[in-house]
Amino acid sequence: MTVTFLGTGTSQGVPLIGCRCPVCLSRNPKDKRLRSAIMIESEGIRLVIDSGPDFRQQMLREKVSKITALILTHSHMDHIAGLDEVRAFNFIQKKYVDVYAEEFVQTVLKINFRYIFDGTDYPGLPKIKLHTIENKPFAINGFGIIPVRVFHYKLPVLGFRVGDFTYITDANYISDTELKKVMGSRIVVVNALRKRKHISHFTLKQAINLLQKINPEKGYLTHISHQLGLHRDIEKELPSFIKPAFDRLKISL
Ligand SMILES: [Zn+2]
Ligand SMILES: [Zn+2]
Ligand SMILES: [Zn+2]
């Protein structure tokens, strides 16, 4: 199984439009962060988790021409805004794109992308087949996925465990019961927005504490803001098993 980080940035991405801070002006490619998303590939299956505003760029950059399914963690725009771009896969794969999301996430999709779901039949409209998921294990073409319930302030969000890999974006709370599902993962990704407290994201310290509790072989940080600092500076501040993720990072497991 291979995991590719398609994006590791917070909702505005890094650099931010118009920002002149050292992170936004950095020439290090690791400081260029598209909106957070990953791609999981395993034996002919290719799953993309989240389709934010950079979805098109991410698919072009990784030369993706087919996807098995798209899975959504929650309905914030930085995770769904690129949904219209699945049209490309409709044309190539000559079928609808399977999108897995919770019921209340689908409700938001139907409001924000009304033209896709209101029954209008117009050539070139995205063709999407929605599949309802809950906080229960499910499978896509026989590939097992265990959802993990996390909270993004009050908003329920899903993290996902596949085999020994767990991905948790956009959250600042996980219950002990849900944490049990993550335990034993060899690689765990969690969001770490910045150092200063935030209402709905883990801070750097909270993310480190959580990863130390889980104690995987490797921990990665994602959904990073320009306020967290330069990639090379963040790296120095972390325990040796934790690394800041960066766009295009690939992990094999
Ligand atoms: Zn987000
Ligand atoms: Zn900046
Ligand atoms: Zn969010």
In short:
This protein is of the alpha/beta class and 253 residues long. It has helices spanning 22-25, 55-61, 77-80, 87-93, 103-112, 114-117, 176-182, 204-214, 231-237; strands at residues 2-7, 37-42, 45-49, 69-71, 97-101, 128-132, 138-140, 143-152, 155-162, 165-168, 187-191, 218-222, 242-244, 250-252.
Explain how this protein is built:
With 253 residues, the protein is of the alpha/beta class. The chain has one domain (2-252): Ribonuclease Z/Hydroxyacylglutathione hydrolase-like (Metallo-beta-lactamase, Chain A). Helix content is 24%, strand content 28%. The protein contains 9 helices and 14 strands. The strands form 2 sheets. Strands 6-5-4-3-2-1-14 form a 7-stranded mixed beta sheet. Strand 8 (143-152) and strand 9 (155-162) form a beta hairpin. The longest helix is centred in the C-terminal third of the chain and has 11 residues, at 204-214. 41% of the residues are buried. The chain binds zinc ion (3 copies). The site of one zinc ion has 4 residues, from loops. Residues 74, 76, 152, 170 line the site of one zinc ion (ZN).
- Structural class, by secondary structure, is alpha/beta
What is the domain total for the residues? 1
Number of helices: 9
Helicity level: 10-25%
CATH superfamily: Ribonuclease Z/Hydroxyacylglutathione hydrolase-like
Encode the helix/strand succession as letters: EHEEHEHHEHHEEEEEHEHEHEE
Cα separation of the termini: 5 Å
Fold topology:
Blueprint: E1 2-7, H1 22-25, E2 37-42, E3 45-49, H2 55-61, E4 69-71, H3 77-80, H4 87-93, E5 97-101, H5 103-112, H6 114-117, E6 128-132, E7 138-140, E8 143-152, E9 155-162, E10 165-168, H7 176-182, E11 187-191, H8 204-214, E12 218-222, H9 231-237, E13 242-244, E14 250-252
Parallel strand pairs: 3-4, 4-5, 5-6, 10-11, 11-12, 12-13
Antiparallel strand pairs: 1-2, 1-14, 2-3, 7-8, 8-9, 9-10
